[in-house]
Amino acid sequence: MARRLRLGTGLAIGLGAVMLVAGGLLAASAFQAGNQPLPYSYATTADKPSDAAAALAGNIEGAKARTIEMKTLETSKLLVAGEVLDLPDGKEILVGWQSKVGEPLIRSDISVKEEEALVAALKKHLPAKSTVFAMPALSRRLAAMTTAEYPLATADDSATIRLPAPWTGARAAILEAERKWRPEAEDETADKAFAGLLDALTAEDKYGIAHLQVMAGGAESYIILHVRDAFDIGVAAPDKLSVGLRDFPSAADVHGATKLVKGWIEKEGYAAYAVIPRDENAVRAYYLAADRDKSSLLGQLLPFNSAHLGLVPGATLVFQNGGYWVYRISAVRTG
Prior knowledge:
4-stranded antiparallel sheet, disordered N terminus
């Protein structure tokens, strides 16, 4: 099926900026077709971990937080700053990720402070052994820090990895390098659950809720979504969701920024949008291209449709902080 991801003006401009930066930093060989080498490297920095990362480490006995960076091999240009937790068994959990090239690189940005607030809320309010549906990378983080069950924690989410065009020839090397952040063993059951989550979120809301209830075996469950998930799902399943993003400069007040984004969305003719802060200088607007996407379960559970937000039958909003939205999915009678 043809790729539906719509390269609107804003997304094209944004990706163009990334390609310009990366293209200027890569060797000429990196632009050639074929199996190119990894164009970047990870390294631990001497910076002190943030208080939020240290707090997250406190949820796992023996875990320690540290800061990392991703740089180009050719020029040592800083591409990403991140934070990880080192576990006693030698594994690592990525809890912070901030692209320094103005667009998502490899994965969407992860705010350590948002992670800290989410984990604190779940540890306080989430019933033990609850079934929780969330994107695989988030499921892995939460599985290490809470007592709930996360069916997608061991799923292969490499389809969500996004690369700037100059790195296309190194895709195989990059996918291999990024395996360090997920379990080594394949898990077909978790992979099917991930596919089921994508089907549910991109279906009409009532069918999507029913799909989640079936996945939970009819029992009560929870779903945790972040606004960035919309873009990741669009990358992983472009035939199911038309989504893009564009950054806007922060205005002096939130109403000014909202007016700027709303005017651009209306001019471009997109169906819906949601805005989250990118940093102190910009906000990031995620937009859904089609009305069908706006009426999907994803479009109804995230703030793309404010008039109907939180009104999906069978889903009750129980927590919201930053880009995170947590819903309880009602149990259904079976048999």
